[in-house]
Amino acid sequence: MNNITTFDLNAREEESSYWLSVFDSLPDTTFTRSDIKAHAFVVSNIKAFARAYHPIDSICCDGVIIN
Amino acid sequence: MEKQIVLSDEQLVKDFIAGNNNSIDKLIERHQAKILSYILMCVKQQELAQDIFQESFIRVVRTLKRGRYADNGKFSSWVMRIAHNLIIDHYRKQKNQSVISNDNYEYDLFNSSQFSDRSIEDQMVKDQVLSDVGMLVKLLPDNQREVVEMRHYRDLSFKEIAEETNVSINTALGRMRYALMNLRRLAEERNISLTLS
Question: So what's the ipTM on this one?
Answer without folding.
Answer: 0.81
